[in-house]
Amino acid sequence: MSNPTAAMLVIGDEILSGRTRDSNMHFLAGALTKAAIDLREMRVVSDDPDAITDTVKGLSAAYTHVFTSGGIGPTHDDITADNVARAFGRPIDVRADARAILQEHYDRSGLDLNAARLRMARIPDGAALIDNPISAAPGFTIENVHVMAGVPKIFEAMVASVLPTLTGGAPMLSQSLTVHRGEGDVAAPLAALATKYPSLSMGSYPFQRDGAFGTNLVVRGQDGAAVDAAMAELAALFG
Amino acid sequence: MSNPTAAMLVIGDEILSGRTRDSNMHFLAGALTKAAIDLREMRVVSDDPDAITDTVKGLSAAYTHVFTSGGIGPTHDDITADNVARAFGRPIDVRADARAILQEHYDRSGLDLNAARLRMARIPDGAALIDNPISAAPGFTIENVHVMAGVPKIFEAMVASVLPTLTGGAPMLSQSLTVHRGEGDVAAPLAALATKYPSLSMGSYPFQRDGAFGTNLVVRGQDGAAVDAAMAELAALFG
């Protein structure tokens, strides 16, 4: 049996203008090779409705899987979700499950789920959500197209969420903890914990909010009991 | 008047497998933005004859310019030139002008212009050569498609060769000098010379051959008299 095939679609004017250097193509290429999925082509298109819709249609018909990156944030030029929905003739609106995920995330952060942020809960009918352990706003899978964020750390986490479901592996589970300390304060205890749980991956994602530093700690793995145990230790350390 | 449009096509299994991280897309994106050419899409395809031919045809019809990178070296899987020729229904064979450039380069280097290297003189009928000041083997322009090497330093030099001809600027002239010293020995005098000729760009490209280090020095600019003068000084310093 030959390997499943795949294409990648990067969406964003900032890549085509040279302002931003893409790193998601190289990351995905390596991840798919390890997963024995043949990446046959990659494309970069601009934030243009027809370019997105036409390319998604064409690639979806030609390959087993399509992975997209970019254009699912809160700003007016984040038009990927709407145009992927259009490619499949599906309605799209704010969906209750995605909204609940965002609401919980922003409640926890003490931030307002305003109209801009609510855009990130627009999900096509029938799509399955892709877990975003870093900044909550989910990606989604519709038919054979996996729609993910452009920010590299988030893209990489979403690939880790979705890839095991394609290769028949156990799905990746994740939990996160927000601590109000800078990354430098949490690095050493986190590294010690990572050594204790070699089957899990542990990441730290610093942020700055209202002038204060904080870090989101994310624990990921296929063994749910191990993830729970590690999270309990993390909470005891930093809770 | 709106800007001319462009697409880029990267050819190479090594990019799709994740073994190599492409840098030519980001370089070209920046260079085209500076040249006021709108880069509308980029694609990466594998070393597959139909993928190359079909993509070149499609992009050539859709955009003012198409820039390709990769697949014009001496090995059996370097099939870009043949398939670009096929896209335009043009015959292709070893061409006398390209062969002469390679012959001179390899004579100077004391290397044999063997059958593998001679593949790099295969140029479609009617194509114009693109100067390669670094390793001689030329790129070419056929209709609106500019076929260039994948090695980043060479790709970048070829872009510098071809871009002024598209924007109506004076063509870029280049001369090179091979010195049998390592790059570390030539860096300081070259930097001093670059300061003296601010309108020129000076590059050094180290190589190792038969266990000995050497460096190709390349002087580029639009002012031929300045290039000549700088080369004379270089020759006096290192000749």
In a nutshell, what does this entry contain?
Two copies of one chain form a homodimer. By secondary structure, chain A is of the alpha/beta class.
CATH superfamily of the largest domain in chain A: MoaB/Mog-like domain
Oligomer: homodimer
Q: What is the gyration radius of chain A calculated from CA atoms? A: 18 Å
How would you classify the helix and strand content of chain A by structural class? alpha/beta
CATH top-level class of the largest domain in chain A? Alpha Beta
Give the largest chain-chain interface (CB within 8 Å). Answer: A-B, 24 and 24 residues
Strand order of the largest sheet of chain A: 2-1-3-8-7-6
And the CATH topology of the largest domain in chain A? Molybdenum Cofactor Biosythetic Enzyme, Chain A
Structure description:
The structure is a homodimer of 239-residue chains. The first copy, chain A, folds into two domains: 5-167, MoaB/Mog-like domain (Molybdenum Cofactor Biosythetic Enzyme, Chain A, 3-Layer(aba) Sandwich); 173-238, Alpha-Beta Plaits (2-Layer Sandwich), CATH 3.30.70. A six-stranded mixed beta sheet of chain A has the order 2-1-3-8-7-6, sandwiched between helices. The first copy, chain A, is an alpha/beta fold. In chain A, a hairpin with a 2-residue loop joins strand 10 and strand 11 (212-221). Chain A is built from nine helices and eleven strands. The longest helix of chain A is centred in the last third of the chain and has 16 residues, at 152-167. At the A-B interface, helix 2 and strand 2 of A face helix 2 and strand 2 of B.
